[in-house]
Write a structure and sequence with these properties.
alpha+beta; GMP Synthetase, Chain A, domain 3; 3 helices; globular
Length: 75
């Protein structure tokens, strides 16, 4: 899942070298933290959070096979 979020985020931002994705496992829950440059934050979140919601939906769909819950946090 970490790689999926990283590929999507790097495609959206102007500074792909500043994209950092970390993954924390807590039992069956996985928390993925996405760090981007301050100037790219709006591009990752989108108007009214639509891009962020789309990223979370794609990750949730991909994680349904593994029977785990994945949360994406944009920091």
């Amino acid at each position: 899942m970490k790689e999926l979020v990283e590929v999507v985020a790097k495609a959206l931002v102007d500074h792909p070298d500043e994209v950092v994705v970390t993954e924390k496992t807590e039992g069956k829950n996985i928390v993925i933290e996405l760090h981007v440059a301050a100037s790219d934050m709006g591009k990752v979140i989108g108007k009214q959070g639509r891009i962020a919601k789309a990223i979370r939906t794609v990750v949730k769909a991909a994680s349904s096979k593994d029977n785990t819950r994945v949360d994406v946090e944009i920091v």
